[in-house]
Amino acid sequence: MPGLIERYGTVAAGLALIAAFAAFAPNFAALGNIINVLKDTSFLAIMALGFTLALTVAELDLSIAEVASLAAVVVGWLVQSKVSPALAIGAALATAAAIGVVNGFCVTVLRVPSLIVTLGTAAVARGLAFMATQGVAFVGRWPTGFTGLARGATLGIPNLVLWLAGVTAASWALITWTRTGAHMTATGEAEEAARLAGIATARMKRLGLLLSSLGAGITAVLLAANLSSAAPNMAGDYFLYAIAAVLLGMTMFAPGRPNVAGTVFAALVLKVLGNGLVLLGAAYYVQDIVLGAIMIGSVAVSTVVTNTPAFANTLAFRARA
Amino acid sequence: MAETGGPDRAPLLSLRGIGKNYGAVVAVRDVDLDVYPGEVLAICGDNGAGKSSLIKIMSGAQAPSAGTIRLRGAETRFRSPHDALLQGVATIYQDLALAPRLSIAANVFMGAELTRPLGLKFLRVLDRARMADEARAYLRRLSVEIADTRRPVAGLSGGQRQAVAISRALRWDAGIVIMDEPTAALGVKETAQVLDLIRRLKSEGRVVILISHNMADVAALATRVVVMRAGAKVIDRPAEGLTPDDLGHMIITGRDVAQ
To answer: For residue B3, what pLDDT is reported?
Structure first.
């Protein structure tokens, strides 16, 4: 079993980073700044949690950002057209879920690797988003019943943070408490063994990809509500961050394996890092360089710590009898 | 020893006229085979003799082209390895059976996890504590002591891994355990451990059907030997008194050493 350093080493490093920024970055520890970081973390972490669930069943979902943009356009369009927010949100989540279903169908029935399928559906989603908007953004004075989902607070806690807490709790409960979660994990860890043990591995893969798209859809609704606007590329910036959060999360708590707690904490660390660098006066491009290094470094750490190649299950092109 | 069975005992598993062909290639032809409780049946034969195809039919991995399978006297068919498992026929696969990064308990209970109610009646959650305890108990029945079954399988020896795979069969209470080359990848000490596991299964009255290239293992363990040749069963006899050399001779010539 991996020891304390393997499981909590990068967690400690993340906490040290936060402490260092609190000590040295001007205004970092101000309440307003901390709340902003937490809100920004919410979008990222919810999207990354979806990717985590796809990776739990050993599939990649590279369509999350485009799916989120498309879902944001759908909700923005409908809210702009005075459709009730509840209906608009339902339509956006249904759109995202539909792409998740297509991803799952292509992976499990047509047996196209998810790496390819989700690149393809990402392009399709982007095309649809630009088609719906004709390239411009939906902007307007939207009802507070909708924007309040992201901008409001409940009992003094920002709603965004509550949404993150809810999605985190639901994901965690699914994976650690339910038989379905155990079957998803077994499918991702050893597909053939799971199949021989009677687990419906194809169904688990479809579920993982569906939940991944749904995470993107929830992120989209919150992003649109927060900005009172929806543009056909609005979630693009979150893509690499979401992947990085999952990869960094895989070095935490359960080394080498995608896990809910790791993803959420890693998302916080990445957002703290970006915020702290800005406050310290680093140029905007420094963030990208650091992000790339973290992505590669995380997988290297996972590989060394677990002494097994990361993504061995995910990137294996399966030949099923 | 009376493990070879006889007309007075009912066979647990009974094959009649089993055939398997892949297009024009005949892999198994007209095999009759009865397996009795408490037997360790070794299926021997050279590569391509049809023993793997026969095993796949018995484990549910493939459907026979001809013939019938009876389990405890009733005609049945196995739609998949899992279907066979549900009917009490477990197959221990050499490499594919375990998820190394998951816990021992999770591997033993894979696909058949235990749950407990969470307050409300209809809401059930995984019962990890009970799975850990019961996994430990299954392993103990196989004389393998592992105190913490929440540890990942990755840290176990080859023999201990076989014990985990067999524990899964016990969890389903499988009456028939099929093992394909169970000692192929193991060292001397671990091989001895696996042979001991097989003896334990036998002493519990379970049937073990064994494919092995290791004639010493077969001679040490089997109560009955079946030799396959060109898809057909050519020898079916008690294993008592057979040496590894006798077994090798029978596989090469296809003739019983006693004749």
So the answer is: 45
Mutate to test the interface with B, among A179, A196, A303 (most CBs of B within 10 A): A196
Closest CA to B40 of B177, B234, B231: B177
Tokens of B98: 């375990």
For residue B114, give the nearest of B128, B97, B133 by alpha carbon. Answer: B128
Contact residues on chain B for A303, CB-CB shorter than 8 A: none
- For A271, the enclosing helix (H) or strand (E) is helix A260-279
- Alpha-carbon Rg for chain A in angstroms: 19
pLDDT at residue A186 in the model = 95
- Sign, CA dihedral B155-B161-B167-B168, equals positive
Phi and psi for A109 in degrees, rounded to 5? -100, -50
Give the residue with greater pLDDT, B83 vs B1.
B83
Nearest-neighbour CA in chain B from A179: distance (Å): 6
Burial of B259 (0-12, 13-18, 19+ CB in 10 A): exposed
Confidence grade of residue B158 (pLDDT, cut at 50, 70, 90):
confident
B179 and B84 in a common domain: yes
Partner B contacted by A200 (CB < 8 A):
no
Q: Is the pLDDT of residue A308 over 80?
A: no
User: Contact A272/A220 with Cβ under 8 angstroms?
Assistant: no
Tokens read off for B136: 């430990």
Q: DSSP label at B155?
A: G
Alpha-carbon gap: A193 to the closest alpha carbon of chain B (Å): 5
Q: Does B113 lie at the interface with A, CB-CB under 8 angstroms?
A: yes
A190 part of contact set with chain B, CB < 8 Å: yes
Q: B178 and B84 share a domain?
A: yes
Strand B207-211 and strand B176-180: the pairing is parallel
Phi, psi dihedral angles at A318 (to 5 degrees): -80, 140
Total domains present in chain B:
2
Q: What is the pLDDT of residues B169-228, one digit of tens each?
A: 888 889 999 998 888 878 888 888 888 889 988 888 899 999 988 888 888 889 999 999
Q: Do the Cβ atoms of B85 and A198 come within 8 Å?
A: yes
CATH architecture of the region A4-306: Orthogonal Bundle (1.10)
Taking the Cβ of residue B117 and every Cβ of chain A, the question of whether any pair is shorter than 8 Å is answered with: no
Q: Are B219 and B249 in contact (CB under 8 A)?
A: no
Same domain, B179 and B144: no
Name residues 226-285 of chain A within 8 A of B (Cβ).
Answer: 256-257
CB-based contact B101 A182, cutoff 8 Å: no
Q: Which two structure tokens, joined as six digits, stand for A145?
A: 């019943």
- Domain around B167: 98-172
Q: Which of B111, B140, B172 is the last residue of a domain?
A: B172
Q: Tell me the pLDDT of chain A averaged across its residues.
A: 91
B168 CB neighbours in chain A (<8 A) are 197
Q: What is the pLDDT of residues A140-191, one digit of tens each?
A: 888 888 998 998 889 988 999 999 999 999 999 999 999 999 999 999 999 9
Chain A residue closest to B96 (CA)? A193
